[in-house]
Amino acid sequence: MSSSPIALWHQEHMYFSRLLRLLQREVDAFHLGETPNYALMLDVISYLREYGDQVHHPREDEVFARLARRSPDRELTIARLKQEHRIIAHAGEHLRELLEEAADDAMMARAEIEVAAATYLVYYGNHIQKEEEDILPRAGMLLTAEDWEAAKNAVPHRDDPVFGPNPAERFRELRRKIAGEA
Predict the structure, then answer these.
(1) DSSP the chain
(2) Contact criterion met (CB below 8 Å) for 89 and 53
(3) Among 41, 61, 73, 151, which is least packed, fewest CB within 10 Å?
(4) 112-171: per-residue pLDDT in tens?
């Protein structure tokens, strides 16, 4: 993996997108009345909540703050993206709760899970697309090495528990599924 901050940011977005597609396939199975792999779905959500929401997004928020100062014309877009980080985190937690209940055979309306999953998938996918098309190129042009270092240090370093050099044992099934999809 490249050490360029833009390349790293883009790479993480590609990882997240792969996981969202995997989650979408399981949601599709659910929608068709089949039994999805709840454990796999929960692994995807757990990873995106624990790494995406707690490591990736806080670093992006630091980039956003610095970019807003250098590109005032993007202030509203950046404010919306920061708000989306909160919405994605909330939607992800809600979906995780519903999936845990479903995995434990709790009675609930199928539509409740479908709506929660659709909200999460659409918000996350659109969010990544906006960052890739507008914010990443602009950040690459306007931010300094000092800005990128501040973003990197916005949260303590944590290896990526799925795609990093030392994957966490608890995500073994998820890694196997991803490898099978490649």
Answers:
(1) ----HHHHHHHHHHHHHHHHHHHHHHHHHHHTT----HHHHHHHHHHIIIIIIIIIHHHHHHHHHHHHHH-GGGHHHHHHHHHHHHHHHHHHHHHHHHHHHHHTT----HHHHHHHHHHHHHHHHHHHHHIIIIIHHHHHHH--HHHHHHHHTTS-----TTTSSS--GGGHHHHHHHHHH-
(2) yes
(3) 73
(4) 999 999 999 999 999 999 999 999 999 999 999 999 999 999 999 999 999 998 889 999
